[in-house]
C-alpha cells in the first residue's frame, strides 16, 4: 500500500484469519446483490420508463444493453485494477461510482441521459464485482469457512435476479420507476460507510504493471461480441418473420469480437505481466468451472426473461404479482446454498455441480409443459423451486472452484473471468433463446392456419406465444444439462484438492 492511512488489519500476522471477516462478508454481499439486482430490476419497469421518457420500442432495449455491454466489456480490466490498485480501494470507488450513476439514472429526463447512466452503472459495476469476489478469496482461507462465504455469494448469484424482478415490480407499481435506480444510492452509502472500518485492504504481491494492449483488446472484443448477439436478439423481437441470424451487422460485431479476443490471447502469451494469465483458464478444473458458468448463465437469464413474460402477458399478472411469482426460485437457492456450503468440504465440488445442473434442468423442463391456463401451483411453482435448488448446488461450488488456488496475485482476475463468462453466456443465451422462441411462435401460427384456424384470432396468437416460451424453456434446460455434463467430464477436483491458501494471503 502506498497510502499511509492505517488499515484495520494492522497487527494481523500472515496465516491468521481476519477477525472481522464475517462483518466484511455482510458488507460485500450487499453490494454484490446490488449489482445482480440491476441486471433485472429495470426489466419490469421498461414499459413505464419508455412511456415517461418517450423511448421507442426499437431503442428501449438499450436500457438493458447499455448496462450489460459496459459491465461485460470492462470486467477483466476491473479485475486487474482491483488486484494492482487495491481491492478495498477499487471496491469503494466502484460502489461510489455506481451510486452516482444510479442517481443520474433516476434523474434522467430523456433517453440519452438514461442510456449514459446505465453505461456508467455497468462500468463501475465492472470494478465493484471483481473486487468483491477477490476480497472473499483473500478474507476466507479456511476451506469450511470459504464454502460458507461462497454459499452467500451463490445464493445472491442464483436468487438475485428473481429478487430484482420482485423489487422492480413493487417499486414501479407502488412508487415510481425512478426508484429502481435511486434505491441503489442509500444501499451504496451504507456499504461504503461499513466497508471503511470493516473491510481490509489487499493487493497483489510482485509485479503489478498494467497490460494496456491486452486491456484495450479484451474490452473492445468482449463489448463487440456481446453487442453482436444483442443485435440478433433485437432483430428476432422486432422482425419475427425474418431470419434474425441473417443480420449482417450482428455478424460483423460477433466476428470482430472473436478476432479481437484471439489477438488478446496472443498478446497475453507474450507479455511479461498479462491482464489474464493463461494459467487461470488452462487449468482443467478452473476452465471447466468457467465453461459451466457460461452455459448456466446462458440458460438462466433466458429462463427468467421468458418466465416474466409468461406471467404478465399470458396469466395477466400485474408487475408486482409477476415479481412475487418469481420468488420460488430464490427460496430454492437459499435452501440449497446453505446445504451446499456444508457439503462442499465433505464431498468436493464436482458431485454438487453435476447434481445441481441436472435438478435445475429438470425444473426448466417442467416449465416447458406450461399452457395458456396452467395453474401457478401446478407447474410454475415446482419448476421454479427445482430451478432454484439446482442453482444453489451449482453456484456455491462453482464460485469456490473458479477462484480457489488462483493465488493472491490473480484473485481479482480469476473473479473477473467468472463474471465475464457469465455475462457472455447470458448475452449469447438470450439471443439464442429469443430466436428459437420467435421461430416456434411463427411455426405455431402457420400450423394453426393450415388447420383452418384464423391466424388473427387472439386465442391462436396466445397459444402460439406460449409455444414460443415453452420451446425456450426446453432449450434453456438443454443448456443447463450441458453445463452439468461439462462439470462431469472436465472437473477432477475432489475435497482434498481444495487448499486453504492460508500461506498465500496477505491483507493490509
From TrEMBL:
Gene3D superfamilies registered for this protein in UniProt: MFS general substrate transporter like domains (1.20.1250.20), Multidrug resistance protein D (1.20.1720.10)
Transmembrane spans: 22-46, 58-78, 90-108, 120-140, 152-175, 181-200, 212-230, 250-267, 288-311, 323-345, 352-379, 385-407, 428-452, 472-491
Major facilitator superfamily (MFS) profile domain location: 24-495
Chloroplast listed as a keyword: no
Superkingdom of origin: Bacteria
InterPro entries per record: EmrB-like (IPR004638), MFS (IPR011701), MFS_dom (IPR020846), MFS_trans_sf (IPR036259), Sugar_transporter_CS (IPR005829)
GO CC annotation, single: plasma membrane
NCBIfam families membership: efflux_EmrB
Protein name: EmrB/QacA subfamily drug resistance transporter
Organism: Petropleomorpha daqingensis
Amino acid at each position: 500500500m502506498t497510502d499511509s492511512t492505517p488499515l484495520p488489519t494492522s497487527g494481523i500476522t500472515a496465516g491468521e484469519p481476519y477477525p472481522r471477516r464475517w462483518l466484511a462478508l455482510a458488507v460485500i454481499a450487499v453490494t454484490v446483490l446490488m449489482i445482480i439486482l440491476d441486471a433485472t430490476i429495470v426489466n419490469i419497469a421498461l414499459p413505464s420508463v419508455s412511456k415517461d421518457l418517450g423511448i421507442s420500442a426499437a431503442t428501449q432495449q438499450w436500457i438493458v444493453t447499455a448496462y450489460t455491454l459496459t459491465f461485460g466489456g470492462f470486467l477483466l480490466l476491473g479485475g486487474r485494477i482491483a488486484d494492482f490498485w487495491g481491492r478495498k480501494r477499487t471496491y469503494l470507488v466502484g460502489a461510489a461510482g455506481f451510486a452516482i450513476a444510479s442517481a443520474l439514472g433516476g434523474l434522467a429526463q430523456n433517453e440519452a441521459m438514461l442510456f449514459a447512466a446505465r453505461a456508467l452503472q455497468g462500468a463501475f459495476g465492472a470494478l465493484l464485482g471483481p473486487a468483491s469476489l477477490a476480497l472473499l478469496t483473500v478474507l476466507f482461507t479456511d476451506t469450511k469457512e470459504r464454502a460458507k462465504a461462497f454459499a452467500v455469494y451463490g445464493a445472491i448469484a442464483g436468487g438475485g435476479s428473481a429478487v430484482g424482478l420482485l423489487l422492480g415490480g413493487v417499486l414501479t407499481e407502488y412508487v415510481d420507476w425512478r426508484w429502481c435506480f435511486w434505491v441503489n444510492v442509500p444501499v451504496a452509502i451504507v456499504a461504503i460507510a461499513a466497508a471503511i472500518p470493516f473491510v481490509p485492504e489487499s493487493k497483489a504481491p510482485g509485479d503489478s504493471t498494467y497490460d494496456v494492449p491486452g486491456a484495450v483488446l479484451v474490452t473492445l472484443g468482449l463489448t463487440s461480441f456481446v453487442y453482436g448477439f444483442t443485435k440478433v436478439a433485437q432483430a428476432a423481437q422486432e422482425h419475427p418473420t425474418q431470419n434474425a441470424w441473417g443480420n449482417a451487422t450482428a455478424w460483423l460485431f460477433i466476428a470482430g469480437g472473436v478476432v479481437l479476443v484471439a489477438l488478446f490471447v496472443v498478446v497475453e502469451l507474450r507479455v511479461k505481466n498479462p491482464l489474464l494469465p493463461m494459467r487461470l483458464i488452462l487449468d482443467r478444473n478452473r476452465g471447466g468451472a468457467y465453461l459451466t458458468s457460461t452455459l448456466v448463465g446462458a440458460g438462466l437469464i433466458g429462463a427468467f426473461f421468458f418466465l416474466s413474460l409468461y406471467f404478465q402477458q399470458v396469466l395477466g399478472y400485474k408487475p408486482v404479482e409477476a415479481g412475487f411469482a418469481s420468488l420460488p426460485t430464490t427460496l430454492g437457492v437459499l435452501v440449497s446454498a446453505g446445504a451446499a456450503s456444508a457439503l462442499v468440504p465433505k464431498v468436493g465440488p464436482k458431485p454438487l455441480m453435476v447434481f445441481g445442473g441436472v435438478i435445475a434442468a429438470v425444473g426448466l423442463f417442467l416449465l416447458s409443459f406450461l399452457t395458456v391456463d396452467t395453474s401457478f401451483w401446478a407447474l410454475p411453482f415446482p419448476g421454479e423451486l427445482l430451478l432454484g435448488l439446482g442453482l444453489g448446488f451449482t453456484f456455491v461450488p462453482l464460485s469456490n472452484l473458479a477462484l480457489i488456488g488462483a493465488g493472491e496475485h490473480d484473485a481479482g482476475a480469476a473473479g473477473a473471468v467468472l463474471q465475464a463468462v457469465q455475462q457472455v453466456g447470458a448475452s449469447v443465451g438470450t439471443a439464442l433463446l429469443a430466436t428459437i422462441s420467435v421461430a416456434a411462435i411463427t411455426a405455431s401460427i402457420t400450423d394453426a392456419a393450415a388447420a383452418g384456424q384464423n391466424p388473427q384470432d387472439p386465442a391462436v396468437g396466445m397459444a402460439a406465444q406460449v409455444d414460443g416460451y415453452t420451446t425456450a424453456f426446453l432449450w434453456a434446460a438443454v443448456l443447463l444439462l450441458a453445463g452439468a455434463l461439462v462439470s462431469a467430464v472436465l472437473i477432477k477436483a475432489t475435497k482434498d484438492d481444495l487448499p486453504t491458501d492460508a500461506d498465500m494471503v496477505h491483507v493490509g
